[in-house]
Amino acid sequence: MKIHEYQAKELFKKYGVPIPNGGVAFSTDEASSVAETLGGYPVVVKAQIHAGGRGKGGGVKLAGSAAEVKTNADDILGMTLVTHQTGPEGRLVKKVLVEQGLNIASELYLSILPDRATAKNIIMASEAGGMDIEAVAAETPEKIIKVLVDPLTGLQAYHCCEVAFGLNLPAEAMKPFFKLLTSLYRMFCDYDCSLVEINPLVLTAENDVIALDAKVDVDSNALFRHKDILEYRDLDEEDPLEVEASNYNLNYINLDGNVGNMVNGAGLAMATMDIIKMAGADPANFLDVGGGASAEMVENGFRIILSDPNVKGILINIFGGILRCDVLATGVVEAAKKTNIAVPVVVRMEGTNVEEGRLILAESGLNLITAVDLKDAAEKVAEIVA
Ligand code: GDP
Ligand code: MN
User: Fold this and answer.
1) CATH architecture of 21-101
2) What's the 131 CA to ligand 2 centre distance in angstroms?
3) How far, in Å, CA of 196 to CA of 185, rounded?
4) What is the pLDDT at residue 338?
């Protein structure tokens, strides 16, 4: 689960990772009040959305006076911010972080994330931090250093040295940096993070190291033990269909294609998406209704798929194990009766009570296309949406 920069900085503060003074504001007036508490200018006004690249998109603005804070906050609040991470539709900005401006000597990059290949945590750092880190990674990858930390033994002093020397830090900045990295690593583990990233990590003219930006991603599977993170959830930043699906305990992810698909089991869903691609079409979503889905869940899943305007055809692919084919068929028929299905539906099912299931579909009077196997199903639906 992603959280906002201002929330990530609350966690940083709790762990003693240095951050600029500042506060979140939901209106221009609030932004002005926060700025007044900061004891001088410049201050920075930063759009809070769950996407990076805000600086380049015009979502981070420096203000040299109280009047400029007002103008900046006015401009940024309510704007639709488009960055390379938001997609062309952009994001509506509803809050800003107002912070003291810093005397930046250099902008560094620092992140920690799990590395699947080595089953270790990896610390990445670069002297060439700031807004062009993607270009650094693509063109001069040698400027990014990587240090692996075994999660069983944890972060050791030599790891910190390796990162600090790799960053060419001045001697005066070593001690504060060690402290920062140690705290950050502890936070990363305590909160089951899948990413913590500071870009830029700023080295000031006074040789202080301060997290100017903060990005934290917490493994959603660990949220049950981090109730404080759950409170940070911002539904405005999530896809509305995905939010609705999560209310029904459905695993749904909205994608760009036009073949809606409903499958039981994550593995089968992945295979179904592959085979849709192989048939020359693109899935509009991932939807795993789960092994033990009820007719009601099938109905909800069906309704969610249908409310995606991109969907031009639907493929239902169910292997009847715990979810019996007759239960599935009942759910589909119920949903179909309640919703006005404007697109063709291809059904492929096999397994427990498949004959009963087919009978329910056949007698429903609905215009459903049955497929004999998975390949046949994918080809039929691909032909429909072509
Ligand atoms: P991002 O573009 O979404 O990653 O947003 P960041 O928080 O990283 O801000 C983008 C850029 O704005 C930074 O790389 C800085 O160059 C600049 N910036 C942010 N805060 C300050 C500040 O306090 N002082 C100055 N001079 N520049 C800042
Ligand atoms: Mn940044």
Assistant:
1) 2-Layer Sandwich (3.30)
2) 6
3) 9
4) 83
